[in-house]
Write a structure and sequence with these properties.
Blueprint (H helix, E strand, L loop, with lengths): L5 E7 L7 H11 L4 E7 L5 H6 L8 E4 L4 H7 L1 E2 L2 H6 L4 E5 L2 E5 L2 H12 L9 E5 L3 H12 L4 E6 L2 H11 L3 E5 L3 H5 L4 E4 L23 E4 L8 H9 L2 E3 L2 H16 L7 H14 L3
Parallel strand pairs: 1-2, 1-3, 4-6, 7-8, 7-10, 8-9, 10-11, 11-12
Antiparallel strand pairs: 3-5, 5-6
Helix pairs in contact: 5-6, 5-10
């Protein structure tokens, strides 16, 4: 192993479930680049010290996953206005000797949505987002950037949804969970940005009857690849967008930051990750 080899990693607690090593490892091999990508299980009480010694550990940067995104945003220099607004970092890198943080989740969501539903025009569109956590913030930012007119944020905790109104402005409307059906009428896009429906989690109990048939239904959950929500939506005739593409696309700008090369999201890469998910969680 060459001493000048660039190394990156993903940190989280737990982190074993992450497909990021598979994705970045594929790109390193496919493009014949000298580099390495690892997993590092970092508990909450070890995060500050890990980031402070990231370079000494031999890393040019790292990805950040649950539960460290918000705390990392407090420990690094935030690289852009979007990351400051999201107050969450998923990509850490060095620039001029300074440790920097950015968030590529909004980019990943928008890029996947454009490729999966290219005829969906978000300019002037209305959408409903289920959830008000970090993923919901990224989705919200992406939709506003794409020109959405009105976005309803529906969350079990109304106060958490209301904070997004304060953060993102008057185009956003906070709703109690029981008002989701009312908000669905007339929207162009529905996005599940909660963990409901994920393998090992409760199902998302949401009737789609009020949703217009031409609306697109997106679920950021990717284990299983087709959630119960997407299956019900597909049976109703909706176009559906799964969560795997967001994971793949958000990895692109991070890889470029560390290894100096912009990789492509290909069908071969998607199938590789799909196979890994199927092996771990039979569909």
């Amino acid at each position: 192993m060459a001493d000048d080899m660039k190394r990156s990693c993903i940190i989280g607690w737990p982190v074993e479930h992450s497909r990021s090593p598979l994705i970045h490892g594929y790109w390193l091999k496919h493009y014949a680049l000298e580099g390495e990508y690892r997993s590092e299980a970092v508990p909450a009480d070890g995060l500050d010290a890990f980031l402070a010694t990231l370079r000494e550990r031999g890393y040019v940067g790292c990805n950040v996953t649950i539960p460290h995104k918000e705390r990392t945003a407090e420990l690094v220099k935030l690289a852009d206005d979007l990351t400051r607004k999201l107050a969450a970092v998923n990509t850490v890198y060095f620039e001029g000797g300074e440790i920097m943080g950015t968030n590529t989740d909004a980019y990943g969501f928008a890029a996947h949505l454009r490729s999966s539903a290219p005829d969906l025009n978000l300019v002037g569109a209305d959408a409903i987002i289920l959830g008000a956590g970090g993923a919901a913030r990224a989705v919200l930012a992406a939709l506003l950037d794409e020109g959405a007119r009105r976005i309803y944020v529906c969350n079990r905790s109304f106060d958490r949804a209301q904070t997004l109104v304060q953060r993102f402005g008057p185009q956003v409307e906070a709703l109690d969970w029981h008002r989701a059906a009312q908000a669905m009428v007339g929207v162009d896009l529905l996005v599940n940005a909660t963990a409901l429906g994920m393998s090992g989690k409760p199902e998302l109990d949401l009737a789609l009857d009020p949703l217009p048939r031409n609306a697109v239904v997106c679920d950021i959950v990717y284990v299983p690849l087709e959630t119960a929500l997407l299956k019900r939506a597909r049976h109703r005739g909706h176009r559906t967008v799964d969560g795997l593409g967001m994971l793949l696309h958000q990895a692109q700008p991070a890889f470029e930051k560390w290894f100096g090369f912009r990789p492509k999201v290909t069908l071969e890469l998607r199938r590789l990750v799909e196979q890994d998910i199927h092996a771990a969680v039979p569909q």
